[in-house]
Amino acid sequence: MNCPRCGRAQPPGSQDRFCVHCGQFLVPMRWMASSPAPDPPRPEASRGAYTGPPRYSGTPSWGFPALPWQRDRPVQGPTAADRAAGHAGLLIPLLRGLAMLAVLSAAAEIWRYVLLLQSRGGALSAGAVSASDALVEAASWVSTLMFVASGVYLLVWLLPTIDAAARRSGVRSSRSRRTVLLGWLVPGINLSVPGSVLAELEHAALGRPAGQRPRPSKLVLVWWGLWAANVILGALVLLWSLRSGVQARADGVVQHAVLDLVAAGTAVATARVVEWLTALVCPPRVVPRQRVVRIREPAPTP
């Protein structure tokens, strides 16, 4: 034992209660180790009421793309089918807009013809005549511009669609791009070539044998008839406009109205054909819906 005052050790075997060096009273002590007392249990914090999802003080600068969830796959360039589907997404509304404009142009021509019939028995209102002329001119020019734009974009959609159908059926197209374009644009030939091209396109997209004669569907046949009627009526109206005389002009108004109505029907049928053939060469991708069957607790980490 060491003295708590002087710090000097006592001689071995000494039984004296006082330090032999300084006389300090010595108290014998024995150290014993014991486990600490357990902490009292803490009261569980009460969970507050749900106040909704987290809120941001400002607009977050992050986000997810507006796409359905899908598994990872290698990134590839757009194929011919993808280009055809992309063009069809713009071409179909364009054709439907052309159909509405053609109906409006036909209504303007019919109104003009009604005014011509009324003028046989008396004078017409200057305002009605001016409004009719303005409506006819505006509808005619806008319809013509829309017709040209739709026709050009139809060819833009047609070329990759032919390539996609040929690749899908594993064959090579029998017509070159130059032949297809000339067949659609050259007068006279454009009565038969467009229908043949769409029939061959449908044949290849359906995966039918290459040696079998194409048999177009009813939709393609209806479109073919409307297309031929539209081309023939357009040529007749153009030739009829070269005649002079009051009766010739009156007949021309009726012919323009009929041509506009046929053009509207052709535009609607073309939109339906574009939608049908695009669905054949580029069927819509079905993303499987993922369902949560069971949730397992994660394994404890060592």
Write structural notes for this entry.
This protein has 302 residues and is mainly α. Helices cover 54% and strands 0% of the residues. The chain has six helices and no strands. The chain has helices spanning 80-118, 126-169, 177-185, 193-205, 218-240, 246-281. Helix 2 (126-169) packs across helix 4 and helix 4 packs antiparallel against helix 5 (218-240). It starts with 79 loop residues before the first helix and ends in a 21-residue tail after the last helix. The mean pLDDT is 82.
Short structural description:
By secondary structure, the chain is mainly alpha-helical.
- Biggest beta-sheet profile: none
Q: Separation of termini?
A: 48 Å
Run of helices and strands: HHHHHH
Hey, roughly how much beta strand do the residues contain?
under 5%
Give the radius of gyration: 45 Å
Class from secondary-structure proportions? mainly alpha
Q: If you average the pLDDT, what whole number results?
A: 82
Please, how many helices?
6
**Globular, elongated, flat, extended or rod-shaped: what is the shape?**
elongated
Spans where pLDDT lies below 50 across 5 or more residues: none
Share of helix, binned: 40-55%
Number of strands: 0
